[in-house]
Each structure stands twice: as structure tokens, then as C-alpha cells.
Write a structure and sequence with these properties.
By secondary structure, the chain is an alpha+beta fold. It has 12 helices and 12 strands. Strand 11 and strand 12 form a beta hairpin.
Length: 453
């Protein structure tokens, strides 16, 4: 009775030692994989193979990977075999996963094709074999038991970890669980690192794209500057020659057609000058000005300056520009924000058939406005805009009226939108034909604790 009890105790102790050994192996494999920051499957499998075999008493081990597009079954790591085995096997003994001999007889190939663990307790009882080179390498020994565990990444079997025993080996449920856990650790490591590398690649590509965009913008700014400078010169020349002709006493002898041609030339050069000026302003709208993009701008003082600069135009049109309430201070480039107000106020006066154009500026409170922004409304009693054109008017050089009806290039609102987008702000409108317009836009609010950066 005591002997039976002792035998049971020793058996339990042996099983406990095996369990602890396998838990240690899982811990070691898990730690090894957690330190890997690569999606290189070969490297991960190589790091795992030794503890996978060593701590489960295997005599030999191989990591096979399927190399696309030829489906070559290549050796990536070895355990218990000569150092030159991998090199010779992959150079001189190239095998295809789908060749008949491999597909039917190799445990590793079967594990890949079926995406299941293949366990063989006694090779003599199975119609399966290994490569001749493998059997020649381990002679005079012979494999008796084998376990092939598929490596599955994104539901695709990409290889196996296979271990070999020269003595009979019993694969119990606990060891089967250990093998599955090991395969899952490898798979999770690879998939995690695939995602990390993809994220890093995307981040790198985005940084490169931003660098390219920055360079393109710089080149575009330079082009616009050179183009606007170079185009002004021929315009001045044309205007000078037209002026000479118009001032010549003999001009009175020109026939009506010739006089009309001169008048058209003058108007065309003026329009071209305005287009060049608006293109230059559009380029400046998104260009950063060092140390001036985070100025504290008092909108009340800014509105006074805008009214002063537009005094002649306001008086000519007999218009009124009124602030309905006190405006806040905001953060941004003062000149760019001034350009927003000048464009919207002058548009409210220009596109207006009233005998007394009225433009009203106010701060609007709305719970839908982000907490770091303020909303400003510029309302006019002008001709209004049909709903179908609400989006189009912000496109560059988009005009809803002929040059004869209303002067301008159609770039003003495009410039306004570009400036606001630079500060992650928005502009929208409420308007109907013959009912005036309300333009709403947001600006970065000055924080009570300091500047909003």
C-alpha cells in the first residue's frame, strides 16, 4: 500500500515538474517575443525554436517558412542540427510545398496545408517520411515521434515549427495546449508588429508627404511672387503706351472704334492688375509669418482700422458699417484677420442695390461652436445669394455676376476661406436672393489663461 502511494506521489511529482517546465517554456517564449519589435517572421521563429524544443526534451527542431510566390518550403531555423544544415538545405535541396512527395508524406507540409497541428507518436506506424537530406544528417539515429505546429498569420498558414524525437514521446493534452499557446504567441507577436510597422510606415510617409508639400508650397510662393512681379512690368508698359496715346493731341482724330479699343485695353490691364494682386494675396493667405501667427488681436480696434481704410468707399456708396455688440480678442495674424473683415464688409457694400447699404458686425453665441473658438457674423442688406451657389462662391475666381454688373475677380471669398482654414476655423452663410446675406465665421478665442496655441 505504501509502495502504491509512493508511486502515485512520484508520478504526480513528475507531472508537476513537466507542467512547471512547460510553464517556464511559455514564459520564456512570451518574454522573448515581447522583446521583438519586428514583423520578421524568420527572426521571431528562430528566437522561439530553442526554448520550444529544449524545454520539451525534443532532439531536433526545424522552422519551415513558405516563400512566395514559388511556394518554396525553406528552413529558417534549426535546433540540434549542424550549422551548415540550413544553408545546404535551402541552396541545394529546394522543395516546393505542393510537390506530390512533400504534400503526401511530410508532417510539416501537412500541418501547413491543413492548418492543424500534426502529432505522430510512432513513425513506423504511419505512411509518412522526411527529406532524404534530413534523414542522412541524423544517421544512425532515426525519428520516432514528431509534432508539427502551423504558424498562421491573418488566417494564412505561412510555416511550421516542427520538433522531432528519436525515442517514443507521448503528447498529452497539456503538451498539446503548450504547443498551441506557443504558436499563438508567435502569431500575435507577428501580427502586432505588422500593425506597428504599418503605423510607422504610414507616419513616415505622412512626414515625407508633409515635407514635399512644404517644399511645393515654398516653390509655389516663390513662383507667385516672381510671376506677379514679372507680370506687373509689361502691364505698366502697356498702361504707359496707352497713356501716351490718350494724351497725344492727335487722339481726338481717332475714330469711335479706335477709341473703344483703347478703352478696352485700359480696362483689361486694370483687371489683370487686380487678378495678379488677388493671386498674391491668396498665396500669402496660407503662408506663415514668423512670430506673427499668434498675435493677440482686439477685434474692436481692428474694425476701427478697417472702417478707416474703407472710408472713401463707404462714403462713396453712402453706406453704414455698425458693430452691434462688443467684439472679443482673438489669436492669429492681425493682417490676415483684417483681410477677412475687409473682404466681407466691402462685399456687403458692393453687392448691394440699396440706396443706403448697411453692414452689421456682431459676436454670436452658439452652443455648437467649439469652446476654443468665437463666432462672428457679418450681415448685409444686399442682393443675397441663391442657396445653390452657397458652396461655389468660396471657389477661386468664382463669379455669379458679369464684370459689367459688379467689378472684381471673384477671389475674395476664396482668400477668406484659405485664411480661416489655416487656423482650423470655418465660414458659412445664410442667404437668399434679394434678402441680404449673413456670413458666419469662427476665429481662435483668446484664453483667459493665456494665448491659444
Amino acid at each position: 500500500m505504501q509502495l502504491v502511494t509512493k508511486q502515485k506521489f512520484e508520478l504526480k511529482q513528475t507531472n508537476l515538474e513537466k507542467t512547471l517546465k512547460r510553464l517556464k517554456a511559455i514564459e520564456e517564449i512570451s518574454n522573448t517575443c515581447s522583446d521583438l519589435f519586428t514583423s520578421d517572421l524568420a527572426l521571431a521563429a528562430h528566437k522561439v525554436l530553442q526554448p520550444f524544443c529544449e524545454l520539451t526534451d525534443a532532439d531536433y527542431g526545424l522552422v519551415f517558412l513558405v516563400k512566395d510566390p514559388d511556394n518554396q518550403l525553406c528552413v529558417e531555423a534549426t535546433y540540434g542540427l549542424p550549422e551548415e544544415y540550413k544553408e545546404i538545405r535551402n541552396k541545394e535541396k529546394i522543395l516546393n510545398l505542393y510537390s506530390r512527395d512533400i504534400r503526401d508524406n511530410w508532417p510539416s507540409a501537412r500541418a501547413i496545408l491543413k492548418k492543424q497541428i500534426v502529432l505522430i507518436k510512432n513513425m513506423d506506424q504511419m505512411n509518412m517520411s522526411f527529406s532524404k537530406y534530413f534523414m542522412d544528417t541524423i544517421k544512425p539515429k532515426k525519428v520516432v515521434s514528431v509534432a508539427a505546429v502551423p504558424i498562421i498569420v491573418n488566417d494564412k498558414a505561412v510555416g511550421t515549427i516542427t520538433k522531432y524525437y528519436v525515442a517514443p514521446h507521448a503528447f498529452d493534452d497539456e503538451e498539446l495546449s503548450f504547443m498551441r499557446t506557443t504558436a499563438n504567441i508567435i502569431t500575435n507577436t507577428i501580427e502586432k508588429n505588422y500593425l506597428l510597422e504599418a503605423a510607422k510606415k504610414s507616419e513616415k510617409e505622412l512626414a515625407q508627404a508633409n515635407d514635399i508639400l512644404k517644399q511645393v508650397n515654398q516653390e509655389l510662393d516663390l513662383f507667385v511672387y516672381i510671376a506677379s512681379h514679372d507680370l506687373r512690368e509689361p502691364l505698366r508698359t502697356i498702361e504707359s503706351f496707352v497713356s501716351v496715346i490718350q494724351d497725344d493731341p492727335g487722339t481726338s482724330k481717332l475714330n469711335p472704334k479706335q477709341g473703344d479699343c483703347l478703352s478696352r485695353i485700359v480696362k483689361a490691364t486694370q483687371r489683370m492688375r487686380n487678378l495678379i494682386e488677388d493671386l498674391t494675396n491668396l498665396a500669402r493667405a496660407t503662408r506663415g509669418v514668423k512670430d506673427k501667427e499668434h498675435e493677440i488681436v482686439n477685434l474692436n480696434m481692428l474694425l476701427t482700422e478697417v472702417n478707416f481704410e474703407l472710408t472713401a468707399y463707404i462714403q462713396k456708396r453712402n453706406a453704414d458699417v455698425i458693430a452691434l455688440n462688443k467684439l472679443p480678442s482673438v489669436i492669429g495674424n492681425k493682417e490676415k484677420i483684417k483681410s477677412i473683415f475687409k473682404n466681407l464688409i466691402s462685399n456687403g457694400i458692393k453687392f448691394n442695390k440699396s440706396n443706403k447699404p448697411l453692414v452689421q458686425i456682431s459676436m454670436v453665441g452658439d452652443r455648437l461652436i467649439p469652446s476654443d473658438k468665437v463666432c462672428i457674423c457679418i450681415e448685409d442688406n444686399g442682393i443675397g445669394i441663391d442657396r445653390e451657389y452657397h458652396d461655389k462662391i468660396f471657389d477661386l475666381f468664382q463669379r455669379l455676376h458679369t464684370q459689367e454688373e459688379y467689378e472684381g475677380t471673384g477671389a475674395g471669398l476664396a482668400i477668406v476661406k484659405k485664411i480661416l482654414e489655416k487656423y482650423n476655423c470655418e465660414i458659412w452663410l445664410q442667404s437668399e436672393s434679394n434678402k441680404g446675406s449673413k456670413f458666419f465665421f469662427t476665429l481662435v478665442q483668446r484664453s483667459e489663461m493665456g494665448d491659444q496655441r
